[in-house]
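Two entries, shown back to back:
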Amino acid sequence: MYGFPISEALAEAGAHVIIASRKLDACERAAASLRSAGHSCSAEQYDQANETSILAMRDRLQVQFSGIDTLVNNSVARPMRRYEDPLEAWQKSMDVNATGVFAVSRAFLDLMMKRGSGSIVNIGSIQSVAAPAFTNYEGTSMSTPPDYHFHKHGLIGLTRYLAALSGPSGVRVNAISPGGFETSDMPSSFREKYCRRVFLGRLAHHDDIKGAVVFLASAASAYITGQNLMVDGGYSS
């Protein structure tokens, strides 16, 4: 949901954006949409559960662009949907959302530290800091599975660890934890309950994450690292 607005924000700020995931066709469609608007963008393919695939993509990009200025960790797999799901679903989630995020981060962080500059922006969630509000989901087919809370909480700890590790080399690592993103098929009962907790009284829209991403990716935040910026309309306050 936040992937395209993030890519669009960085492209609008003048970056060449590389959109990457397992689904190359989907990445290419998104990249083509940005190119049609006059932006610089390309698509790549990698498997976040496979370190060999991650390193191969990193090496291709290093040759093509002679360095990566910013890494945004936004990819997420959702194999687990409910607390009762088989343990295999939890393990598959960790392969991508915990081990995979670390593998991607380390692969690009090593290059940034060697060069002496760079920024990593990890996309967390309100579930990175808040307990689940199960009543929001009552009467709907929606749910909030435990694996998501586990790896999103862990992402904030990893952000701080990597910030401490890479700070002396001139690299910054921060996180953004956005609130719920409004979609057209969202049940009205969920929307109503969720928005009661939001100071601004609404869910997030397409442009709401853009400023935070550009800020943390750019020199405007040159003295900020190890932080988690809440972009949730006040939900977690």
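entry 2 starts here
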Amino acid sequence: MRSFDAPTLAQFQNRTAISARILIWAVARNRDTGADESLGLWTGAQDRSFTIAGVPRTYVGAGAIMDIPPIVSQSGIAVRMQRFSLSPLSPAVATLIRTYDARFAGIEIHRALFDPVTGLLVSEPHRLFKGIIDEVAVTTDPRSGESRCDVTVASSARYLTRTLPLKRSDASQQRRSGDRFLRYVDVSGEVDVYWGEKRPATAKGGTKEGGGS
């Protein structure tokens, strides 16, 4: 069962109108530098900083998020899928889909509650979803000509279904100060190695001695 802090719980129990905004935070690899970089988007009208778990984050507003359906919480280890639409016209969204490698990027979705009378933030935004970006597709409506970036995300339980090469690869290992320990992981098990014995005859009928000792 999800628990909320006292100010948030009191806001839910007031039975008054609730002013809520959705915050999306992604951490993706920069294609040029290979470094992980973060990007925040929210449904507010202007850019704004929010503190999440004691760390300030800047979220870009002004229509970057076009549509996001209600997020339904679910217990257990089942993989939850969520979909939302971003505006490819937003410079921040363009950075996410072009400068960054968004596939499998970490993502968090929070909800910020504001007092409908004062407009002040009720409490620190609470998290609704945590997982990875599964798919990004930019489409254009043939009738209206409107472009949208549809993003499908999977909950953290998706990590349990990822194969080993997706968890550890040469590209990911190089982020550790250029470590090339996994440079041959893609061909591991496919190359014959002979130690202290004769190799099979070549196509011309010759043989080569193994170099092992």
